[in-house]
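Students often ask why we bother encoding 3D structure as a string. The short answer is that it lets us treat folding as translation between two languages. Here is a chain of 93 residues written in the first language.
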Amino acid sequence: MTEFGSMPDTEIAQGEIRRVLKEADKYWQSWFWWQYKYYQDSTSSTSPPWEQSLYYPNGTTQEKKIFALSYPYAYAICGTPISQTYALNTYTL
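And here it is in the second language, the structure alphabet:
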């Protein structure tokens, strides 16, 4: 799954990001965030355009988005996985 995340840095958007990631994890679906930093991309239609990014124009991070996207990921495991736990269900900012 690619190119999701055109959202503001708000509590509501944070919940939506977590919901999408939880569904992706439920089906073992890999995912990729749309945009790391805004570089005047002509394909963007978000207003303001930096809402797709993880940074504001002044260089500060959009912390709610980063927090929602950050959780442990196992690069390698032993055996056959039988479930995946979404770690952020209990954390808050």
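Translate back mentally: The helical segments are 11-26, 63-69. Keep this in mind for the problem set.
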